[in-house]
Amino acid sequence: MTALPCLKVLIIDHNQERLGATQQQLESVVAVVDRQDIVMEFLAVHSNVELTVALESDGDIQAVLLNWETHENLLPDTSIIDAVKSRRLEVPLYVTGEDDVGFDIVSRSNKIEAFFALHDIATDPESCLAYIINDFDDRSETPFWTAYKKYAQETNDSWHTPGHSGGASFRSSSYINDFYKFFGRNMFISDLSVSVDSLGSLSDGTNAIGKAQNLVANTFEVKHSYFVTNGSSTSNKIILQTLLREGDKVIVDRNCHKSVHYGIVQARALPLYLDSILDPKFGIFAPPSLTQLKEFISENQDARLIVLTGCTYDGLLTDLKQVVDFAHQFGIKVFIDEAWFAYSLFHPQYRDYSAINAGADYVTHSAHKVVSAFSQASYIHINDPDFDKDFFKEIYAIHTSTSPQYHLIASLDVCRKQLEMEGFKVINNLLNHVREFKEQAAKFKRIRILGPDDFKQMFGHFESDNIGHDPLKILIDISELSYSNQEIHRFLMDEVGLEIEKFTHSTLLVLLTFGGMRSKIVRLYNALNKLDSGHVSLRRSNHQKELPNKIPPISMAMLPSEAFFGKRETVPLQDSVGRIAAALITPYPPGIPLLVPGQTIEAEHINYLNALSSQKLTIQGLIDGEIYVLAQ
């Protein structure tokens, strides 16, 4: 049975006698408040050390009550408030003190949620506790999900789209009623239409949808947040088409997701590609060098935008504060694709690498990849002081369906609630699982878990650029195993029931997401232990276990849009040297484009693709050995 939500109030006071009195006064009115839907607890600490330990270990803490002592009319500094917020940014902080210094206290910090006089807590603790509970309720509100669920359960007669009318067309069919039975009644009665005005419009951001989006903006501490129901691929394109015009320069990480490359094509912009930095042994790409990025900015001060991937597929993290600060000196906007890192704000271990915390102007999050939303659910966050909201909405309308899936919108609403209320707790548990897993995996003889020390060896700029790594992206070195990738994949899937996120020729990538459980970690360890010890019957492999040393650089002959929308033809790959690519050519994994539209094809590119053939990778854009080029 799922436990009730817990509202734990952490009380800190260096005066132990007063600390105990405050705790007793608040506890005495819990029964009077009479909330059966939550559990209320109080934790009292009287030292900064105890405060730090509690904040870093107890994810149920949902409020901090601090007694602000004064000595000889001197107010203390705000370091304790900063310490609380650096660890638990989302937790409201309340201050108590003598009544006559209330104004002085709240003027010292804008991070204080409310002030309570000590006299009020002593004489009317019920009112103070009710204030804290009200804030707790506001934070845990789900305006769209609540209204959506209520409307669906009313079972109104449907005289509008969708045509199945709450599942009636499925239920009454001899041919497709199994579809209804599989998903169940609630799935169909909640498949609604934009005709339900009370729930609001996604394109206009009205009513319950608008309220839910505003709550997301509050949780992520940005000016505006928007829901997107067809993935961060679309979110990326919306931002690029909002900001870029034909011929605008955009400095872009070549390793960005292909949606960024397509968005640049759609915007008819001019990309300036930062070099790919590849470790050929493991097939891992690093973030671009900050030295090269700063050179590009200095040489192209008229660039409109910088686009980077905040967290790579393999979990490498860019120190984005350096990027944002340098770019903003020249008036250049910064857009970060943080699809794989939607939880970056909600734990102190990650916050320094968060795009929002770094001050990026635009950020996208795939809420379905690692946190709790349905597939295709995505957030757009905007902090740009020059944001053109009207034009953005025009572009948003181009890409957004007028019949959005309300299940996806509801999942974005509840996903925010989880991040707000228990994001820290979930992440803390996951990080503990990873630590335990690594301790056990250290016993392996042939399999290794790659970490920062390995990345320092792979990439010369890892330390100098302050690159980080997300340990929830578990990168497993299998290069010492003598089995083929296909055999390892078959063993993991067919024999032990593990579906792995990504394979390269020498690594497995395992994502520990918000749905990660300790038992899953144990099952993964068990499977790897069998592979490491050789207690499996798999075919041996003698195939090459290393990629080419680097990806050839991009040399643009024209705007990508000119080639992409121009007249094109197919030619055999081997005959394409000197021609201009008219489509993306993307080896997968890892999904980094080798060729982009408008790029001159060189022999080096052909050699690279040929070298990949032994790896049995998928080459997207290569059709029966032919590729699209600009017609002559």
Automatic annotation (TrEMBL):
Membrane-spanning segments: none
Domain Orn/Lys/Arg decarboxylases family 1 pyridoxal-P attachment site residues, every copy: 364-378
A GO term for molecular function: carboxy-lyase activity
SUPFAM superfamilies: Ornithine decarboxylase C-terminal domain, PLP-dependent transferases
InterPro entries, per the entry: Orn/Lys/Arg_deCO2ase_major_dom (IPR000310), Orn_Lys_Arg_decarboxylase-I (IPR052357), Prn/Lys/Arg_de-COase_C (IPR008286), Prn/Lys/Arg_de-COase_C_sf (IPR036633), PyrdxlP-dep_Trfase (IPR015424), PyrdxlP-dep_Trfase_major (IPR015421)
Keyword vocabulary terms for this entry: Decarboxylase, Lyase, Pyridoxal phosphate
Gene3D superfamilies: Orn/Lys/Arg decarboxylase, C-terminal domain, Type I PLP-dependent aspartate aminotransferase-like (Major domain)
Pfam families: OKR_DC_1 (PF01276), OKR_DC_1_C (PF03711)
Domain of life: Bacteria
Keyword Lyase attributed: yes
Co-factor requirement: pyridoxal 5'-phosphate
Lyase among keywords: yes
Family, similarity comment: Belongs to the Orn/Lys/Arg decarboxylase class-I family.
Protein name, per record: Amino acid decarboxylase
The species this protein was found in: Alteromonas lipolytica
